[in-house]
Each structure stands twice: as structure tokens, then as C-alpha cells.
């Protein structure tokens, strides 16, 4: 048994060195850069959601770390939102675990005492937009990338807590339009409506994100954390008190024929677009 141990350890080490990590953490002096790293588009499957949750939790436990920049290893895509293949033709048990992972990741990121800034270089639809909105500030690159909650365009409905976070960020009327019409906007329009704090050329996204983070970190820490809690706890508590009900609503909705056929159509359209791109 003891003789097996080094072999087992060597295998585990090899596996760890070859399995790409879904989230990369780079620690700086008193903050970390957390890069989503699930090719090709950082679609949020259960494992990526759990990895984000664990990454934030581990940074919260590190006494030297006071803040984080949430970013992507893919400069063209921040995150494509929830992985649609998790919701299409699902197994109920996995679907339930997937939604719980989404709820947990939202609650962790929205209420973390760390100061958080989203550095958005590329597209950020739906669940990607939620991750960005959970941060204290958002910097986005000018030009092509779009951000927004586009769920209605897919024929699905965002849960109340995604709506609440958007209302807290851009107000009721703008949310009504963005959410109802499934709109995605570029950085300039995002800045006009308060969804984005800074719209800058792509090469400046990280330096401006760092500047914003340092501004948050210049505030006396306990005052900053208590104020964040005061602003956000009520919204988070609304979901905490209804976790199971929200999950049941999602699972029931997702498993309807109507939603399954909408997801099938959307996946087929994505595939067709990808094939046309590859053929060029
Ligand atoms: C029932 C549910 C009820 C309630 C849930 C409410 C909450 C839902 C939240 C969500 O997040 S839903 C997901 C919404 N996301 C989107 O609409 C984004 C869809 N994707 C795109 O628009 C584009 O892919 C892009 C992100 C702009 C990137 O474009 P690009 O041209 O760079 O890549 P391409 O489109 O070719 O995609 C590459 C590859 O990735 C697959 N893909 C893309 N997005 C997703 C996704 N969200 N889930 C799963 N897979 C995705 C795409 O099909 C291609 O795959 P292929 O290479 O195998 O063809």
C-alpha cells in the first residue's frame, strides 16, 4: 500500500499538470486577477461555475488579498453565459445541481467582501453579463463586444435575481427595456445607461480595471465592506430565502417542451453560424 503511494502521487501530479484549469488565478500585491478559461467561449457549465465560486472563496480566505479583477483568457469573449448544453435535453439531477451552482456563484460574487472589478474585453451575454454586474465596477472595451441579458431572445426568462441585480445596476426602466427586449449593448451605450463604468480601447481595459480596483481599495476596509453589505444583502437574501423554490421553478420551466424546442433552435443556429465562420 505504502509503495503504491508515490505512483499514485505521480499520476495525480501528472493529471493536474495536464488538466487545464477552468479558472486561472494570478496574485498581485494585494489583489488577484481571476481569468475564466474554458474554451472556446467560457460558457458557464456546472464545473466552471463551481470553479469561480471556489476561486472567490479561496481569495476571501487569503489575508493578503483584498480585491480581484474578473477577466477572461479569451480577449474576444468574457463569457457566453450559461452553457446551453446543460439545459438542453437535461438529466434532472444534473440540472438541479447546475442551477444550485449558478445560484451559489451569484451569491458568492455579489456579496463577497473583496472589492471586485470586471475587465470585459469581449462579448458578455446573459450569465456573462450577470457575472460582470455582480462586480463593484465594470470596464469594457470599445468597439464590437456586446453585453446584456438577452434571455427573451432565446425564448427563456431570466430568474428574478438576475433582474434584481440589473435593476440595482441600471434602474427599473432601463432594465425593463434591456430585459424585455433581450437587448445587448456596446460599451459606449452601456456607459450611458450605467451598466458600464468605463469604456476604453481594449488595450487599456486591464490598466483601467486596476485603477478602479485601487480606488475601491483606498477606502477604509471595514467601511467599504459594511457599505457593500448594506447595499447588497437585501437582494441576496431574497434568493437565499427561496433557493429551493427558485430551483424548482427553473427545472420545471427548463423541462417544458416549449423551452426545449427553443433551446434546440438556438443551439442549431449557433452551430450553423460557427460552421459558416469555419468555412470562410
Ligand atoms: C431554460 C432556461 C431558463 C432560464 C435560464 C435563464 C438564465 C440564462 C442565462 C444564460 O446565460 S443563457 C445563454 C445565453 N448565451 C448566449 O445567448 C450566447 C450565445 N453565444 C453567442 O452569441 C456567441 O457564441 C458568442 C458568445 C458571441 C461568441 O461568438 P463566436 O463567433 O466567437 O463563437 P461561436 O458562436 O462560433 O461559438 C463557438 C462555439 O461555442 C458554442 N457556444 C456559444 N455560446 C454557447 C453557450 N452559451 N452555451 C453552449 N455553447 C455555446 C457554439 O455553439 C460553438 O460551438 P461549436 O464550435 O461546437 O459549433
UniProtKB/TrEMBL annotation:
CDD domains membership: crotonase-like (cd06558)
The family database entries (Pfam families) matched by this protein are listed as: ECH_1
Gene Ontology CC terms, in alphabetical order? mitochondrial matrix
Compartments annotated for it: namely: Mitochondrion matrix
Could you tell me the keywords of this UniProt record? Acetylation, Fatty acid metabolism, Isomerase, Lipid metabolism, Mitochondrion, Transit peptide
Classification via PANTHER family = ENOYL-COA DELTA ISOMERASE 1, MITOCHONDRIAL (PTHR11941:SF45), ENOYL-COA HYDRATASE-RELATED (PTHR11941)
What is the documented function of this protein? Key enzyme of fatty acid beta-oxidation. Able to isomerize both 3-cis (3Z) and 3-trans (3E) double bonds into the 2-trans (2E) form in a range of enoyl-CoA species, with a preference for (3Z)-enoyl-CoAs over (3E)-enoyl-CoAs. The catalytic efficiency of this enzyme is not affected by the fatty acyl chain length.
This chain's protein is named: Enoyl-CoA delta isomerase 1, mitochondrial
Origin organism is: Achlya hypogyna
